[in-house]
Design goal:
Distance between the termini: 33 Å
Number of helices: 13
Structural class: alpha/beta
Largest sheet: 8 strands, parallel
Strand content: 5-15%
Helix content: 40-55%
Oligomer: single chain
Strand order of the largest sheet: 1-8-7-6-5-4-3-2
Length: about 300
Amino acid sequence: MPDQLRSGLMAATTTAAAKRAAFRTGLASGRIQRLPGAFNPLVATLIQRLGFEGVYVSGAVVSAELALPDIGLTTLTEVVERGRQIARVTDLPVLIDADTGFGEPMNAARTVTLLEDAGLAGCHIEDQVNPKRCGHLDGKAVVPVDDMVRRLRAAVSARRDPGFVICARTDARGTEGLDAAIDRVKAYADAGADLIFTEALADPAEFAKFRAAVDVPLLANMTEFGKSELLSARTLEELGYNAVIYPVTTLRLAMHAVEQGLAEIAGTGTQSGLLDRMQHRARLYELLDYERYNDFDSGIFTFTLSE
């Protein structure tokens, strides 16, 4: 095998099993694992370059990329393929949003097998009624505890690699209250969930109460413009949380910049005033490892990088 391929030219060289082991080690380390959302593989590459511990793939973002609201319209095939594309390029563990498991318990089981095959490190499955709604919107409904327990048991039973992390998400905080949400996730942990994600906790006091009541690793969601106060990674670590996701941050940053740029072109007829707000061609080529591709086959890639 050519050296360039062995060193990760076209795909990450870390195996899926090693990524899963790293994720579990990180969750047990006492140091919070920071997982920014990646809306495409290039963003995942940048997340790794900047020293984060993992990558997150948001179901809301997969929906938004297709110009759809986050109400359960995406399919298992679409979500798995986006997860596969992102996991392929990074040596970091990738956690993916699997919504409600895409159907009944048997569907949740199949979801886990396909996500394992795609190289993901883990997924989370939620207890909303299917089709679901965004976790920070009102009007949600959750299934009975026993129904969610069946979803989780099916998912756990389908897992072939014991390193694959199955995270249980509850949306009961906004519908049944904090104490009910705590009771739910204790049942979810008993059903085999490795990690617990409680959506839409309000403030540090609620995060702390949850931590005091639950023994398993906990994940915090720091999404913007939602119901949760935005806490720093250090604060969450001090509260005893094991992981934090920033699910839509990169998409929101990108779309704001794109909208402003398009408005500038529409108004002035040129992008010349936007150049200082763009990623330079040289930086993009650096992220894409163009020079290493050139070394790999100079007969095909025969360009010179321009400044």
